[in-house]
């Protein structure tokens, strides 16, 4: 009984890592579909999200069942309680990738992102992919130091977002209403990718140390 | 020992209800500051959010401690695990109210909301306040039926959001870039209030029934 219980705990961590890999793909493909106006890619991000939602439901059910049936303590309890939150954060990132892909689809065959915002969104996409990758690696290697790095990357994302607002509302802005709405919402979605990754990092640190990092440096994303 | 433990469980539920009341105030005041360009009100929503963030941290710490120290089972375990999620959802709603108030402050002394969108946002605000109130009452009275009503209210919010896009991008739209950006983001924030309330409803149902409602009708907000 105990063996199979420990196998279940290991399998939860493995599945979190696998889910994070799928989320990384969703973000990369969503961003690519946006920046290359690739309808097929956009459709595939949208339809693949079913799998992430399904994993979310299954993992949540499994974790709640383990809590109910095994009455885990200490480190095991931390893993299960954290897993419930991490699958939620990952599933939200998948939803955001769908939002990005839907804007790409809505504007197809045009580019949703106005030309002068392309570099900015390309950088945001790179940051989002990097922060999710680091969150996954910190989980995989149970590396609290790695998880701490996420906050600095999140700050780069916030800076890019502020720059986008300056560009949007600057005097020489010749953007359309549609373009402005897309930029505002897309900027929000990319910013949220990073926030959710930071939240995953918080849980990784909690799994390892038993302490939830708090305060200014650790926004409750 | 058991008595004080049960007192702690009751106090968790009481504090969730109290936190939901504060969130309702934050949403109402945030919306009022927005719709009346009231700087004092906006500032107060922004500064009061510290309290919600503090409650979030304290409650999360308390719940994780109870899990670690008491090894609760069955209904008690469900309350604690759900409370961790509910405080998170409530704190996010508080953050969104701050986002709304910050847009009001940014545009002061002007109205952030363009005149022709005022009715729409007034209705969104009323829906947001109502859905949070119902989520709180369902929690207070442990009323699963009440929690189920949240989904229908959420749909009204989504409909309003779609109408806003139609108005924004319609042929006779004479809105400024700034106005369009504000409407797009504010619409998103109000939509998210409802999503988070629905997520609270899911947890109320889980506390009562032991089942997490799933599927199309219960988006994993």
Feature tags:
homodimer; 221 residues; mainly alpha; Methane Monooxygenase Hydroxylase, Chain G, domain 1; 7 helices; 0% strand; elongated; PhoU-like_sf (chains A, B); Phosphate-specific transport system accessory protein PhoU (chains A, B); transport (chains A, B)
Structural description of this entry:
The structure is a homodimer of 221-residue chains. Chain A has 221 residues and is an all-alpha fold. Chain A has a single domain, classed as Up-down Bundle (Methane Monooxygenase Hydroxylase, Chain G, domain 1). Chain A has helices spanning 2-35, 39-70, 74-107, 118-140, 144-148, 150-169, 177-209. The longest helix of chain A has 34 residues, at 2-35. Chain A starts with a helix and ends in a 12-residue tail after the last helix. The model of chain A has no long low-confidence stretch (mean pLDDT 92). Chain A binds chain B through residues 53, 56-57, 60-61, 64, 67-68, 71, 73-74, 77-78, 81, 84-85, 88, 91, 95, 165, 168-169, 173, 175, 177-178, 180-181, 183-185, 188, 206, 210, 212, 214, 220, and chain B through 53, 56-57, 60-61, 64, 67-68, 71, 73-74, 77-78, 81, 84-85, 88, 91, 95, 165, 168-169, 173, 175, 177-178, 180-181, 183-185, 188, 206, 212, 214, 220.
